[in-house]
Structures are given as structure tokens and as C-alpha cells.
Amino acid sequence: MSDERPAPEGPATFRDVFGQAEFRALFTATALSWIGDYVAKAAVAVLVYRETESVALSAAAFAASYLPWLIGGPLLATIAERHRYREVMAVCDLIRMALMVLVALPWMPTWAIFVLIFAATLANPPSQAARSAVLPQILHGDRLVVGLSLQATAGQAAQVLGYLLGGVTAAFSPAAALLLNAATFAVSALLVRFGLRDRPPAMRAAHRSHLLRETGQGFQIVFGQPVLRAIAVLVFSSALFSIVPEGLAAAWAAERRGDLAGGTAQAIIMAANPVGYVVGGLVVARLFSPARRLALMRPLAVLAPAMLVPALLDPSPLVVALLAAACGFAVAGLVPAANGLFVQALPDSYRARAFGVMATGMQLIQGFAVLVTGALGERFSIPLVVGLWSAAGVVLMLVAALSWPDGRQVDAAVEAAQRANDPATPDEPPRRFAGRAGAPVAGGEQSTEHGRHRHAVT
């Protein structure tokens, strides 16, 4: 039975969020970096293919940007916890700017391009972890949830714009596209350096231990705390199926070559999910109250994979695109609300590390889903694979929704994080923040703006 309680504050508006000067600087810097990243991915793929005429090497150059997350994402993100977030973001932007300029040099051999791309993307985990950790220090309450939704929506829009801009620019000059990416990092570094306040590191020097141990504590806090673990399962599960139409778009379009030109069919299928996410993020954040968004998380979690089940009927590419867009819309209603609750139930000193765990998990799960469905698509028709994979996603989401923690557990986790964030409270091992299952809320309503919501979602 639902145990929803109304939030004391109404929904935050876009004006409330963009009224914060620090958020405007961070949002702009982040959007520029993302657009530059996708421009560079398109440009590097073209550059390597022109140099080698190898499809495999071109694809490998594209995939190289994901390797740092797979190899050492949580470890690299932990580094951000040890230093000032503003400093981490600015330095990472400058490093990536310099390396992108080197990649653009006309005499750079292919093997050096791979090395430089890999080195540049090593800066992504600490930079993104620092950005994720600093946002809750800028925005509080429902402004944080709306800010997260805007960031996620901007990321999807940046993907579409970056690929389009990168593809067009790289067709004429890959080097120009790479220099454009370097310029976005330069502007981002300036915005971060002069647009954000300088804050002390989340982890005090006296509480540092071995880097591997600190990284392990990131896993411990995410999977050892019942509420954080439930959110992680929900978010990871949504990634398990929502990426599949995009990952199989090229082969799917080839199978239905008679409906549309292959390139056009592939493009609309790949763009559909990000477009649906952008629309869903804006609509849900604008039209629904904080309490309603939390209550919608579980129904949307089940609805998202259900939108792809009609793929079993082998629809046309246009219908496939509509299904993928509907799935993206549902995921956009789920993920920002889940992220907002995740942040509020997480102690400040673990935010960068927890982000590293979550981001790495997303990369692994998305890659796993595309690899498995691609392998199945070699033996069976793609509509059958996507439809059955999505039906299994409905079952998985139903289990995740039914096992969602009750309201008292959620409230206890949020209050435990608030106690841990109190400057008068000494740092403790992560097990103190986990909270007992069903533990009562000791302090009632939180006095700080960051903790005013009663997150009872049962």
C-alpha cells in the first residue's frame, strides 16, 4: 500500500535552478564538455578510418573512450574525493584540452592517437565524479532533483548535437573537429575556475587511507546500504534494456532496408531514445511535484521495458523509433528522481566514490547488454531478441519495484546521511551510514533545506 506523504515544499522550477549562478556555470561547462566529447568520438573514428581504412580499428578508436571506466573507473573517481572539486574539474579539462590538440596534429601516427585518446579519457572519471559530488553542494531539496534532471537531459541532447556536429565537421576536417573539442574543454575550465566557489576536499587528510581501501568503501556504501542498493538495482536495470535499440540500430536497419534508406533508418532509431529522454526529462520535472515524481519511479521502471516488447511484432523502423522514444521518456522520469534520492541518502564524503561505482556499473551493463543481444541477433531475428529481452526486463523491474524499501527505511537512510554530513559528527566507516532495515526516524523532519523531504515511497 502506498505510504506517500506530501513534501513540505512545492516543485522547484527551471527558473529556481538556473537562478543559481554556480549551477549556470557548472551546467554550461558540463554541456560544452559533453558536446566536445561526442564531436571528438565522431572525429576520431573518421580520422582512424581514413588513416587505416580499417573498420575494426575505427570502431576500436571509438570504444577506447570507454576503457578507463572499465579498467579503473571507481579508483580514478576516488582521487576526486581527496582534492578540491573545483580544482579536479579544471585540471582535468586542461589535460584533455592539451591531449586533444596533440591528437589533431597531422603527423600523429595511429598508435599514438590510441594512446592519447586513452590518456585523455583517464581524466573523465575524476572529473565527472567531482561534478556529481559538487552539485548537491550548490542545489538543495527539489532544486537538486530538477538540476539532476536538467543535467541528464542536457547529456542526451549533447549526444545528438555532438554526433551531428562531429560527423559534419569531421567529413571536411577531423582535425578541426578535434580542435573544436579542445576549445570546449578550455572554456569549461574557465567556467569552472571562475564560476564555482572553492570548497575544501570532502575527505580530510587525517582520514585518508590506502587508495584501494577508499575505493572499496565506495562499493561498500552503495551495495551495503539497503536504500542505495535498491536505487542502484533500479538504475542499472533500466540501462540493461534501454540501450539495446541504439546498440542494434545498424543491423536492425539493414534487416528492414526496404522501408527506409539504411542510413536514415539507423539514424532515427539511434536518435529516438535520447530524444525521448530529453522530452521526458523536461515534462516530468516541470509537471509533477517532488512527491509525485518519487511515487512514479516504480511504475515508470516497469513501463520502460514494456514499451519495447511490441518489437516482437517486427514493426517498421519508424515504429521502432517511437517505441525507443517512449522507453527513453519513461527512463527520464525514473532516473533523475532515483539520482536525487540517491544523493540525499549518501554522505558527502562518499559522493565521488559512489559516483565512480555507479558510472562504471552503467558502462559495464550497457556494454554487456549490447554484446549479449548482438550475439543473440546473429542466431535469431532482432525483433524477437529485443522483444523477449524487454519482456525479461519487465519481470526484472517488477521484482525490483516489489522489493523497494519501505518508507521508514528510506527516511532512516536520508537522516543517517544528514547526521554524517553534520560537521560536528566525526567521520565514521560506511557501515554506520547503512541504517537498520526499518529503523525509525529519530529526528522527525529535517531542519536543513537539503533534508526537508519525507522520502516515503512504498
Automatic annotation (TrEMBL):
GO molecular function: transmembrane transporter activity
Annotated membrane topology: Multi-pass membrane protein
Membrane-crossing residue ranges in chain numbering: 55-77, 98-123, 171-194, 230-253, 265-288, 295-313, 319-342, 354-376, 382-402
Predominant subcellular localization, coarse grouping: membrane
Region (Disordered): 416-458
Gene3D superfamilies linked: MFS general substrate transporter like domains (1.20.1250.20)
Sorted UniProt keywords: Cell membrane, Membrane, Transmembrane, Transmembrane helix
GO cellular component: plasma membrane
Subcellular location: Cell membrane
The protein's name in its UniProt record: Major Facilitator Superfamily protein
